[in-house]
Design a protein that fits this description.
alpha/beta; Alkaline Phosphatase, subunit A; Arylsulfatase, C-terminal domain; 2 domains; ten-stranded mixed sheet; 31% helix; binds calcium ion
Length: 485
């Protein structure tokens, strides 16, 4: 199929009438936006109607209920997005070190095939972007307030402005002034929010200041049913989350509230959770309002019908589940990511997909949407058949995951694993794991919160053994080097 498309394109002069019918793609991507905080995914925040604009993509398009990442951390997720490859092949294993921009990336192919390609916002891959007609990105993590942006030509400082608004302004500016007639475009709008330290704009901050949110049932998890990694991480609301920079309680009214709770550890954790949620969810509301600005522009400029709109995040996030914030683990809250897509005339409105999809699929999906050739060495699968409601019979039944950044921030041990729709096997390994290797196994149907590893349960021995085989097979299929322990 891939070869067939390539041959077809070689015989079709580029820029011919085919270009006029190929869809535009607007890809909106936020940083650390947990699916638990997207209205279309339900959950404990649903009554708040947090994401009315993002939710229109669910109403008019498709929600992916089982979308996952390959490595739950910012920069590696973006490297996978651009290359369609697992971290060990694109070289971006963790947030440290560089990214080889010279390697194959989907936008280079899209550009060669007649698309205008644009990247605005947070990419977190240092160095000059390649394959984009226009790019304007935050350096590194970027700033919430007064953000600086880098382009091919130089730097611009947006003094006193909020990054979510500036990123949207710059995307709208490109839509207004940058487009070339008769050329389809790929516009990537990458928000910094709601990344730590969760600095919302003033309007949303005030709106959320007095709200109280439901607690997750696992807020006071003691990790009894799990291994070393869950016990020894450094990402708890109780110990790791700081009162000063994370919760801005070093002075003012928040400090006064904290002072009253100094001798009540449990009450203080509850206060920290509520304060964290106020800031985090206010950031989400800011992103959603700005997603709305882009959707309105498409509608008012007659672009709605021929533009695919997608929304996703670079990975999931803990909103107090297991007592945590942050990500990294292969447990569901960080492993999963929201993914919604609207494609008028192609995606049946109001549909949900439950197939296992992963961020290695995004690059091939964009190329397929653009009828551009898909290189054989990309490691995902195009989601276009799924979007059309026709999942291929041989669609994958398992996913491979690998997290590398240890030792490092938040002290989550290195691990890899395999998951099916129902069962998950995780192998923690290396430094600071007893005997260098520790396994966990979960049945997501009977234990959706992953509270009790069943790895040593004799009744599960057969399925554990088969998942070990599957892990081996996936390592081979995805060309994980044997030198990776
Ligand atoms: Ca992130």
């Amino acid at each position: 199929m891939k070869r067939y498309i390539a041959i077809l394109l070689l015989t079709l002069p580029l820029g011919l009438s085919a270009a006029e019918t190929r869809p535009n793609i607007v890809w909106m991507f936020s940083d650390d936006h947990a699916y638990q905080a997207v209205g279309a995914y339900g959950g404990r925040f649903k009554p708040l109607n947090l994401t009315p604009n993002i939710d229109t993509l669910a109403r008019d398009g498709m929600v992916f209920d089982r979308a996952y990442v390959a490595n739950s951390i910012c920069a590696p997720s973006r490297a996978t997005l651009l290359t369609g490859k697992h971290s060990h092949l694109n070289g971006k294993l963790d947030n440290r070190g560089g990214f080889n921009h010279d390697q194959q990336q989907f936008q280079k192919i899209l550009q060669k095939n007649g698309y205008q390609t644009v990247m605005i916002g947070k990419i977190h891959l240092n160095g000059a972007m390649q394959g984009f007609d226009y790019w304007e990105v935050l350096p590194g993590q970027g700033r919430y307030w007064s953000p600086k942006f880098i382009t091919a030509e130089g730097e611009t400082l947006y003094k006193g402005q909020h990054s979510t608004k500036v990123i949207t302004d710059r995307a709208l500016n490109w839509l207004e002034t940058g487009r070339v007639a008769d050329k389809p475009f790929m516009l990537m709008v990458h928000y910094k929010a709601p990344h730590r330290h969760w600095n919302p704009n003033k309007e949303m901050q005030e709106k959320f200041a007095t709200l109280t949110f439901p607690e997750p049932s696992t807020l006071f998890d003691d990790y009894e049913g799990r291994g070393t990694a869950a016990h020894k991480q450094d990402m708890t609301i109780s110990k790791t989350m700081t009162l000063s920079s994370d919760l801005k309680a070093g002075k003012g009214p928040r400090k006064a509230e904290v002072d009253k709770l100094r001798d009540q550890p449990k009450a203080l954790i509850r206060w920290k959770y509520q304060t964290y949620m106020r800031d985090y969810l206010a950031c989400i509301a800011g992103v959603d309002a700005n997603v709305g600005r882009i959707l309105t522009f498409l509608k008012e400029n007659d672009l709605e019908k021929n533009t695919i709109v997608m929304y996703a995040a670079d990975q999931g996030f803990y909103l107090g589940e297991h007592g945590w914030f942050d990500k990294r683990f292969m447990y569901e809250e960080s492993f999963r990511t929201p993914l919604l897509a609207r494609w008028p005339g192609v995606v049946e409105p109001g549909t949900r997909n439950t197939d296992l999809v992963q961020n290695i699929d995004f690059a091939e999906t964009f190329l397929d949407m653009a009828q551009a050739p898909i290189p054989e060495d990309m490691q995902g699968q195009s989601l276009v058949p799924l979007l059309k409601g026709k999942t291929p019979e041989d669609w994958r039944t398992s996913l491979y995951y690998h997290y590398y950044q240890y030792p490092g921030t938040h002290s989550v041990r290195r691990h890899e694993g395999v998951t099916t729709k129902r069962h998950k096997l995780i192998r923690f390994y290396g430094k600071d794991v007893p005997n260098g290797e520790e396994w966990e196994f979960y049945d997501l149907e009977t234990d959706p919160e992953e509270m009790h590893s069943q790895y040593r349960n004799p009744e599960q021995a057969t399925i554990v053994a088969s998942l070990k085989q599957e892990l081996k097979r996936l390592r081979k299929e995805y060309k994980v080097p044997d030198s990776t322990p």
